[in-house]
């Protein structure tokens, strides 16, 4: 199937190892990921940090599902279609990258490892911290990111990785790898798992309508919009995110989407309410 979408690709087993330039020419895109290139990631610069992230085609938009716990509510709210994501050429590029992941994992991983190393060196040169958020618009188990039997967390033990996930078991990768931090995502329908995540020392992110409350379901809410580097946050808190860049037709369905916590939610409390 890989040949269908990448007709110019020739397997490395039949030729000499490809140079970096040749890899990009074969796959038909100029980069897999970048550092500080989205509006939110750009905020990392204020904290003297480079954050490398990858934007794949979310859910099953590519024909392959990269979000195992996706439902109609999070699909309608997904940031995959926000910002530059609203342009068709950007969506086509993300689809191509996602298909590459499934159809030629080895080549995908060679590009990924090359880019992480490139930006790691750039951060050192610029005297900045460096971190990686692979799943900017996906929810893939980082153990699947392997090259020659070595996963990305093992390949870069000195690099800080962090991610959001709605797959509960993925949280515990952070207990296996000291260079990984995980935040669990509230879907509006998974509070039991959120409670378990908090009980196990993790934090939970939730998207709120308009202003952030001081507390949600009894837990303090911190502002998650000032930066994306969740590994800097305390545990046992709710990371509050505001609704943003949501298309008009989605906002019209706002009250029907439990993914957003509405102003009327009974578990939204401000400081005066609990004093």
Describe the structure.
- The protein has helices at residues 2-5, 20-27, 39-42, 72-77, 88-103, 105-125, 152-155, 173-176, 191-199, 248-251, 271-274, and strands spanning 33-35, 49-54, 129-135, 146-147, 150-151, 160-165, 180-185, 203-208, 215-216, 219-223, 238-242, 260-261, 268-269.
- With 275 residues, it is of the alpha/beta class.
- It has one domain.
- Strands 1, 2, 3, 6, 7, 8, 9, 10, 11, 12 and 13 form an 11-stranded mixed β-sheet that branches. A two-stranded antiparallel sheet has the order 4-5.
- A hairpin with a 2-residue loop joins strand 4 (146-147) and strand 5.
- Helix 5 crosses helix 6 (105-125).
- It is globular, with a radius of gyration of 19 Å.
- The chain starts with a helix and ends with a helix.
- 36% of the residues are buried.
Unreliable stretches: 1-15
Briefly note the structural class of the backbone. alpha/beta
Number of helices: 11
Helix content: 25-40%
Shape: globular
Number of domains: 1
* Main sheet properties: 11 strands, mixed
Q: Quick check: average pLDDT?
A: 84
Q: What is the CA-atom radius of gyration, in angstroms?
A: 19 Å
């Amino acid at each position: 199937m890989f040949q269908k979408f990448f007709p110019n690709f020739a397997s490395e087993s039949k030729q000499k190892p490809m140079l970096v330039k040749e890899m990009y020419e074969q796959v038909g895109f100029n980069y897999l990921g970048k550092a500080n290139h989205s509006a939110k990631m750009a905020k990392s610069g204020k904290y003297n940090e480079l954050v490398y992230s990858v934007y794949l085609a979310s859910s099953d938009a590519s024909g392959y599902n990269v979000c195992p716990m996706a439902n109609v509510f999070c699909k309608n709210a997904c940031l995959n279609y926000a910002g530059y994501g609203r342009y068709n050429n950007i969506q086509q590029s993300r689809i191509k990258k996602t298909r590459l992941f499934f159809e030629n994992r080895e080549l995908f991983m060679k590009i990924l490892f090359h880019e992480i190393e490139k930006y790691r060196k750039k951060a050192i040169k610029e005297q900045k911290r460096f971190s990686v958020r692979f799943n900017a618009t996906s929810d893939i188990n980082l153990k699947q990111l392997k090259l020659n039997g070595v996963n990305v967390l093992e390949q870069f033990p000195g690099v800080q990785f962090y991610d959001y996930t709605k797959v509960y078991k993925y949280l515990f990768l952070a207990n296996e790898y000291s260079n990984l931090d995980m935040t669990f995502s509230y879907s509006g329908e998974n509070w039991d798992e959120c409670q378990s995540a908090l009980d196990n020392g993790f934090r939970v992110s939730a998207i709120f309508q308009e202003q952030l409350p001081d507390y949600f379901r009894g837990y303090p809410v911190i502002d998650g919009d000032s930066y994306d580097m969740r590994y800097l946050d305390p545990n046992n808190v709710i990371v509050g995110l505001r609704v943003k860049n949501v298309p008009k037709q989605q906002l019209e369905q706002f009250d029907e989407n439990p993914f957003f916590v509405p102003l009327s939610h009974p578990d939204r409390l401000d400081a005066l309410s609990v004093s």
